[in-house]
Design brief:
seven-stranded parallel beta sheet
Length: 528
């Protein structure tokens, strides 16, 4: 997997590369500039006969120093380049100052930033290419004038923008907009992607991301001290459970799914069908006894377990003994939540199941809401637990958990989703799948995994139920809770992406994803 760095982690890599490995900052800056120029030539000039003007916007730090290298190299290749500086030349320091002096000696045209803001058309022609080297990854406060005015002007120009390292104005750690931010078509970053490239709205401002190698030691880029990772297709291929020729349905596990209530039977059917399609050998749906006729008329491959209910189509707490007995004798995984509704008896049932189950548990939807405000019960589990909340459910789950006190809105969860996910998983000793854009998986050990797949078409009823079924199936087939979560989330999103190409995002529904599972699994399964 590819590591994903914070600003501080990347600064430490930079510092160690210079001070422990003996690669100077000037060399790293030169390589960074070369990487960006190579990408600009590839993207813009490879098939263009005429050469348009390149505007390079430079701040006063190392990001601006990278910009000065880029300007010098492009100028030396014969391109029409103009540099606009946000600071006085005498205030530049270190490697940025060295590269400013080099740009002067090479004859690169350099102007103060006010000339960009009040330009005559001859100085800033349109169209032009813009290189954003204003702020970089170290930003920790809102952008102020005159840089904010520069950003607004760039965004209004409708010229292609290539950002250096990260679009100026985007938080490298959270992806949030710090007052205002460049909206780039391309971003060239170095060594590792940053969290802000992958989290929204930063991902939208990043455009197409290119990760370039400039000489950082691999030992630093792969350090276990960096806790956040990006899931890649190769990871999914590696995790796909094998299907030995000498096997039977018991080889691939038995999932007991507790799901459905009056008016919400569809959630149970979708979860069960996705579970089977994802490879589980057996699926039994535990259902309210009064709804048995409905379930019996619709199930085919699935089995059913009638459970005591309150005669209103919702489960009674009295079902706990039958569920635990079935788990002890027959099932390998307990999945609970889709469509079960929420009331005091469901909450009581969840507390008992969490504390008594001998099989790993996947908790979703109403089952998550049933323990809202009582997340401490998760610590009483004797088995691994996977939770799959969306941001609204996560906000309710955080209540009284001791994690991120004061946060109560889904928007607040989204703004710091990685740190919140890691903290919750560590505090409750659970595996957390925080669904969203993007989905984030966190483990009790404090590691997190960002999922790159999925699209807006999946924001429709039932897709979360499908994910629960897929994760449960992988868990039943012998994957660890973490790997079942990673593979489930990645393939779920990948299937949604492939389906949306044919049906469009507006028309995608959950059953489309279930129906496409076989085709996608066949595509990513390693060849024998």
């Amino acid at each position: 997997m590819l590591k994903v760095a914070t600003a501080k982690e990347m600064q430490e890599i930079d510092h160690k590369t210079i001070n422990e490995y003996g690669i100077s900052g000037t060399v790293l800056m030169e390589r960074a500039g070369l990487a960006v120029v190579s990408k600009i030539n590839e993207l813009f000039f490879q098939n263009i006969m005429h050469r348009v003007c390149c505007i390079v916007l430079c701040g006063g730090g190392n990001n601006g120093g990278d910009g000065l290298v880029i300007a010098r190299l492009l100028h030396n290749q014969g391109y029409d380049v103009r540099v606009f500086l946000t600071v006085r030349p005498e205030n530049l320091k270190g490697d940025a100052k060295i590269n400013y002096n080099a740009a002067v000696k090479f004859g690169v045209p350099l102007y103060p930033i006010k000339e960009f803001l009040t330009h005559p058309s001859s100085l800033v022609p349109h169209p032009c290419l813009i290189v954003d080297a204003l702020l970089g990854t170290g930003l920790n406060k809102d952008v102020r004038s005159p840089v904010s005015e520069v950003i607004d002007k760039v965004n209004a120009m409708s010229c292609p923008v290539t950002s250096v390292d990260i679009p100026s104005g985007i938080s490298s750690d959270t992806g949030q907009i710090m007052g205002c931010a460049i909206k780039a078509q391309y971003t060239v970053t170095f060594g590792l992607p940053k969290r802000g490239h992958l989290l929204y709205p930063g991902a939208e401002h990043t455009g197409k991301l290119y990760i370039e190698e400039i000489g950082f030691p691999q030992a630093l880029l792969k350090s276990e001290r960096i806790k956040v990772n990006l899931i890649e297709k190769s990871d999914a291929m590696r995790l796909m459970p094998p299907r030995p020729r000498y096997s039977h349905k018991g080889t691939y596990g038995h999932v007991l799914l507790i799901a459905g209530s009056r008016g919400k039977t569809g959630a149970a059917f979708m979860t069960a069908r996705a579970c089977l399609r994802a490879g589980a050998g057996l699926v039994t749906i535990g259902v309210p006894q009064s709804l048995m006729n409905i379930f019996q008329s619709r199930v085919t491959e699935e089995m059913t377990l009638p459970l005591p209910d309150k005669k209103d189509g919702t489960l009674s707490y009295k079902s706990v003994d039958l569920i635990l007995e079935f788990l002890n004798k027959k099932a390998d995984v307990l999945a609970v939540g889709p469509g079960i509704s929420v009331d005091d008896e469901i909450s009581k049932l969840m507390v008992s199941l969490i504390g008594s189950s001998k099989a790993p548990i996947v908790i979703d939807a109403d089952a998550i809401n049933a323990i809202a405000g009582n997340a401490g019960v998760l610590k009483k589990a004797k088995v691994p637990i996977i939770l799959t909340p969306h941001p609204g459910e996560m906000a309710r789950l955080l209540q009284g958990s001791g994690v991120a006190p004061g946060l109560s809105l889904p928007k607040e969860i989204e703004e710091d989703k990685i740190n919140i996910s890691i903290s919750f998983a560590k505090e409750t000793k659970t595996y957390l799948v925080l669904k969203g854009v993007p989905s984030v998986i966190a483990s009790p050990e404090g590691n997190a995994f960002i999922n790159p797949t999925g699209n807006p078409g999946m924001a429709t009823a039932g897709t979360g139920d499908v994910l629960t079924g897929m994760v449960s199936a992988f868990l039943a087939q012998g994957l660890s809770p973490l790997n079942a979560s990673i593979l489930g989330v990645y393939t779920h999103g990948l299937i949604g992406d492939i389906v949306s190409q044919k049906k469009g995002e507006h028309s995608l529904i959950a059953s489309d994803i279930i129906n496409a599972i076989p085709k996608v699994f066949k595509a990513i399964r390693p060849k024998k």
